[in-house]
Amino acid sequence: MARMPSPPHQGSHVRRPVSTHGFTLVEISVTLSVLALMVAIGLPSLREFRARQQASAMTNLLMSHFASARMTAISHNVPVVVCPSDGAGNCRNGTDWGGHWLSFRDPDGNREPDDSNDIYRNEPAPSAPSIRVVSSQGRRHVRYQPTGMSYGTNLTIRICYDGRVASSVVLNNTGRPRAVRGNLKTPC
């Protein structure tokens, strides 16, 4: 006959090992210390990365604005001007290209839109509190001929982040834009 296991005694308790499912205070403190150290090391690199990304986006938008104006001049066979705008459809004098960018047809050569129908694009430039867009002295607007050429001197538009040059858009005297990466060490 098979022997049956005996039931546990009423008075005795069987102790099982207690398993923990958490972290100790020391483990959490060490983890937080390592995390704080990694953030402190990586934060300056992250700021520079953000500055470069914002400057790159601004550079690409400005270059696309110039390319669009050039293609419009060629396809419509009419001179097109690109200038910084006050937002109301007028060119602004000065070297500040922040705010708005204006593209318009300019058949009479007065470098101002004569009618609201002459305006192709009047767009706000992306705004960021730490970004400033300024051009070199001398050439304050770009006028594309129906051939796509833009005669005159070179124009450099600097995109500055916290007072340092992050990138530039350079237009040669034929009107072709190119991007130049800044080093964030050159003052604006």
UniProtKB/TrEMBL annotation:
Q: How does it sit in the membrane?
A: Single-pass membrane protein
Q: Does the keyword Isomerase apply?
A: no
Gene3D superfamilies according to UniProt: minor pseudopilin epsh domain
The UniProt annotation puts the region (Disordered) at 103-139
Where, by residue number, does the polypeptide cross the bilayer?
Answer: 20-43
Q: Where is the General secretion pathway GspH domain?
A: 59-175
Q: Which UniProt keywords apply?
A: Cell inner membrane, Cell membrane, Membrane, Methylation, Transmembrane, Transmembrane helix
Protein's UniProt keywords contain Cell membrane: yes
What PROSITE patterns does its record include? PROKAR_NTER_METHYL
- Compositionally biased region (Basic and acidic residues): 103-121
Compartment(s) where it occurs, according to its Swiss-Prot or TrEMBL record = Cell inner membrane
- Belongs to which family? Belongs to the GSP H family.
Q: Which NCBIfam families match?
A: IV_pilin_GFxxxE
Q: What is the name attached to this protein's record?
A: Type II secretion system protein H
> Organism source for this protein?
Pseudoxanthomonas japonensis
